[in-house]
Amino acid sequence: MIAKKVEVEENVAAEKAKKKKKTSTSVLMGAAFLMATSAIGPGFLTQTTVFTQQLAASFAFVILLSLLLDAFAQINIWRIIVVSGLRGQEIANKVLPGLGVFLAVLIVLGGLAFNIGNVAGAGLGLNAMLGLDPKTGAIISAAFAIFIFLVKEAGKAMDKVAQVAGAIMILLMIYVAFITSPPVGEAIVNTVAPEKISIFAIVTLVGGTVGGYITFAGGHRLLDAGIKGVESIPEVTKSSVTGIVVTGLMRVALFLAVLGVVSKGLQIDAANPPASVFQLAAGQIGYRMFGIIMWAAAITSVVGAAYTSVSFIRSFSPVIEKYHNWIIIIFILVSTLTFTLVGKPVKILLLVGALNALILPIALGTLLIGVYKKNVVGEYKHPLWLTITGGIVVVVMGYLGIDTLIEQIPLLFK
User: Fold this and answer.
1) Which of 70, 170, 263, 348 has its CA 20 to 30 A from that of 48?
2) Which domain of life is it from (predicted)?
3) Would you list the DSSP string of 30-83?
C-alpha cells in the first residue's frame, strides 16, 4: 500500500516536472520569436531590399557581420537580465540613480514613434493582401493586437502569435527566394570576401535588429514568465541565439529573393521596394504573399513594441504594474490614432530614429557595468569574452550612433 502511494507520488512529480519543462521550452521559444519578430518589421523589409539593390552579393558580408554583433549584444543583455532578475531600467538605476528613468524615456518615446510606422505597415499589408484601405487595415490590425492583451493568458497568446507569424514569414520568404533562382555561389563568396563594404548598412541592420525596445524584448519576456537565476543561463543563451538565427534566416531569405530579381536586371519600384520584388518574382500571387508577410511582420512588431515599451515603466509604480495590460492597449490605441488622424510624423521619426541608434550602446554599456556590481548580480562572475565582445559593440555602435544623430538633427529644421 505504501509502495503504491510512493509510486503515485513519483508519477505526479514526474508529470509536474515534464509539464514545467514543456512550459519553460514554450516560453524560451516565445521569447526568441518575440525578439525576432519585433525586429522583422516594415523597416526590416525595406532596408534589406534597398541595401541588396545597392550592394548586390556583397550585402551577404554585411548580414554576417551584423548577425555577429547582434549575437554578442543579445547574449550579454539576456544573460545579465536573467541572472540579476531585474529589468533593464532597474539595473540602470542601480548603476546610476536616474539612468533607468532616462533609458525608459528613450525606449518609450522610440517605441511609440516606431509603432506608428508598424501600425501603418500592418495597414499596408492588409491593403496588399485583401485590397482594404490602409487606414481601415490599420484599425483592424490594432484591434487584433489589442485582443491579444485582453485574453486571460496574454503572455502565452503573444508567444504563440510570434511563433506562428515568424514561421509563416520564413516559409513564404524561402519560397520566393527559391523561385527567383539567385546566384547563391556568388553570395557565398561575398560573405567572406565582399567586393564592397557599407558601414552605414551594418549600423542600420544592427540598430534595426537589436536597437531600441528590441534590445530588451526577449529578456523582459523571460522575467515576466518567471525565468531567472544563474541556473537558467544555458537555456537563456540558447533562446537568445535562436532569436538571432530566426532573424538571420529571414534576412538571408529576403536578401536571396532580391538578389535573384536584381541579377536578372529587373527594375525594382523605388516607391515600395519589397512589394515590387514579390510582384516581379511571382506576379499578382507574389504581391498577395508580400501582403501576408508585411502584415505578419508589422503586427508582431506592434505587439513587441507595445509590450516591451510598457515593461520599462512597470516598476515605477504599483498602479502601472497592476494595470500594465491596459496601458499596453492604450499605447497601441495612441499609435493607431496618430497614424489614422495625422499620418506618420516624419520629423519625429527622424529624431527618434537617431536617438534609437544610441539606445543599444547606452543600454548594453550600462548592463556591462552592472554585471560587475554585487547589488545587481550577487556572486555571479561574467565571462571575460562576453565583456570584451559586448564592449566592442558598445564602442562601435556608440561612435556610429553619435555620428548618425549629428547627421539627422539638421534635417529637423529644414
Assistant:
1) 348
2) Bacteria
3) HHHHHHHHHHSSHHHHHHHHHHHHHHGGGHHHHHHHHHHHHHHHHHHHHHHHHH
DSSP string, 314-368: GGG-HHHHHTHHHHHHHHHHHHHHHHHHT---HHHHHHHHHHHHHHHHHHHHHHH
Q: For residues 390 and 386, what is the distance between their CA atoms, to the nearest angstrom?
A: 6
- Find the angle CA(310)-CA(313)-CA(316) to the nearest 5 degrees: 155
In sign, the C-alpha dihedral spanning 246, 221, 205, 287 is: positive
The pTM (predicted TM-score) of the whole model is 0.82
Domain ranges for the chain: 33-373+383-413
pLDDT of 391 reads 94
C-alpha pair distances (Å), 376 with each of 123, 192, 278, 368: 42, 40, 48, 11
- H-run or E-run covering 143: helix 134-150
Cβ-contact 212, 356 below 8 angstroms? yes
Percent of the chain with pLDDT over 70: 88
277: closest CA among 130, 129, 176? 176
> Mapping DSSP to helix (H, G, I), strand (E, B) and coil, where does residue 195 land?
coil
Q: How many angstroms separate the CA atoms of 50 and 72, rounded?
A: 26
pLDDT of 50-60, one tens digit each?
888 888 889 89
Cell for 215?
Answer: 534590445
Instruction: List pLDDT tens digits, range 139-163.
Output: 999 999 999 888 877 777 777 888 8
Domain 33-373+383-413, CATH homologous superfamily name and number: Amino acid/polyamine transporter I (1.20.1740.10)
Classify 393 as helix, strand or coil.
helix
Mean pLDDT (whole number) for 270-296:
87
